[in-house]
Amino acid sequence: MAVDDDTGSENTKPQKSAWSVSRLNNEIAATLESAAERFPTYVVGEVSDATAKGYGTFFTLRDVDGEETIQCIVWSSYRDRIDESITEGEEVIVRANVDFYAEGGRTQLNVKNYWPVGDSDRSQELEALRAELNEEGLFDADRKQSLPPFPSNIGIITSLTGSAREDFRESAWGRAPGVTLTFFGATVQGKNATASIVGALQQADRDPDIDIIVVTRGGGADDTLWCFNEEPVVRAIADCATPTVVAVGHEDDETLAEAVADKAAMTPTDAGIVATPEMSTIRERVETIERRLQIGYETVVSEQLDALNRRIENAVVGLERAAETRQARIQRAADLEQRIDTAYTTLTASRLDAVDDRIETALQEIEHAAETEAVTVRAAQGRIGGLETRIDRAYETHITQETEALERRIESAYRDIETDTDVQEAKQEARQLRIVILVLVGLLLLGVALWAGGVL
Hints:
- This protein is α/β, with parallel strands linked by helices.
- It is 61% helix and 16% strand.
- It has a 5-stranded mixed β-barrel. Strands 7-6-8-9-10 form a 5-stranded parallel beta sheet, sandwiched between helices.
- The N and C termini lie far apart (174 Å).
């Protein structure tokens, strides 16, 4: 039983890790699709086993120098545009992409066009021009201009009689009804197409009102689209200062004009979509932005109002505190003023009392001094009166004595003069004596006055 269990376990492991055919084929298809750029656009080989169906033509492409083969299919939509018929045994160059048919598990070439090897010079020239332009950097993504998001005037280069004109108009106005479409008529196939397209490109690029240049036409065989591979057309598109959109043919048509343009579109209808903004989407975005702005505005305003309210509340609290502080200072000032008034009144009263006491004391002292002075004055006056009496008496006595003595001398002198023979000299002497007496009397009076003044 143990052996049987082990054997069953070993058989279960591969079963769990095994892929289904569907998963394997889908993985192969996904791998090939992700590596599409690794495969060439053109393949050379010999046609065999061609079978035409209503929906397309199947044939085998055999290696020219070996036995290796690959299955090919040309769908009817491309087969009808190919000028050459598919002939078995003919060596051809096909333009195709590698396709894996997952349901049948087979790899095949999905052919878009082909040419007999005798006509392959044109393909070689195309590849040479592609390599030259690529080396110059005209296919580089960093040189391509961005399309303006909201063009007001679009210049369209196409045939004025083809369906591409109406397809583009319908598509563009369906998305942006207000955009102006300016059409520049051009021949888009045949021998005159190259010059016509270049002239229209230059005319549109010189127009300052044109925001985007669109070059477009419907699908066709490679020969009819060949003018969009011509070097003058490709370089004219690359030289445009105005952003360019090129939409030539159908989804699988490839031209150098599309590769060098700032933007490539699959069809004229798709070009209208690429070149114009979707107004409904823009309106939705504008409404969304308006709502966000409104919400943002309300949020900002609310936050600012809250901030202002907080600042106002803080300011009010600050003012209230300042008012309280001011009131307290006023109260303190009032208390201080009252205390000063009380102290001033007390100090003034005490000082006035002291001054009154001093004045009273001074007055008493002055009165006492006055009384003492009065007594002294009365005593001095009595003394002066006594002195005056004594002086007067002494003066009278002295004057009387002096006068009597003088009179005696005068009389004696007079008698002498009279007896003297020189009467004139005696008179002169008498006059001199009188003068001396007067001087002596004056000096005596002056001395009395000075003495009396000193006593007073």
